[in-house]
Amino acid sequence: MAASPHAVDSKEYKNALKTCLYMGAEGGVLGALENHNCDVLVLPTDSDNLIDLAGFPSINIPLGFGPADISAEYATPDLVDRGPNVPYGLLFTTRKWHEARLLQVAYAYEQASKTRDKVALMVDSNIELRHIVAARETSLQLEV
To answer: Which of 28, 89, 112, 122 could pair covalently with 62 via S-S, beta carbons 3.0-4.6 A apart?
Structure first.
């Protein structure tokens, strides 16, 4: 019986992983940083899969939301990739162990652009981590 194309032991999965690792390293991100003598790369937010697989540090700066009058594009049948009011941003990334420079550049961009001030709050939660911890502690005390 053939392995599912999504199984980690399938040929398709192994080939896709190999490609992603190459594009995240010398064939893409690392190659661009080194060949062009860059400290930081700025990419669309949806580039994070390559960055994550290659293990590079990254920061996402929000820019806004998709226009309300565009049609939705789906990544999977249940997941909207781009569409009305879908958030998007810029992804800043650099080499491993260069987080200090990454923070400097991303902070400078955020301060200069003020895009954070233009992004509307979608959900305002009144639940904080301390509430969850307190509830868990209370639950554990009742079990004893």
So the answer is: 89
What is the full per-residue pLDDT of the chain (144 aa) written as tens digits?
Answer: 555 667 888 898 888 888 877 877 777 888 889 999 999 999 888 766 677 777 889 999 888 777 888 888 887 888 777 788 777 889 999 998 999 999 999 999 989 988 777 666 656 667 777 878 888 777 766 555
Whole-angstrom distance, CA of residue 45 vs CA of residue 61: 8
Would the pTM count as exceeding 0.70?
no
Phi–psi pair at 113, nearest 5 degrees: -85, -30
Q: Which alpha helices (H) appear in the chain, and where do they start and end? A: 11-24, 29-35, 48-54, 99-113, 115-118, 129-143
Residue 121, CA atoms < 13 Å, CB-side half-sphere: 3
DSSP 8-class letter at 46: G
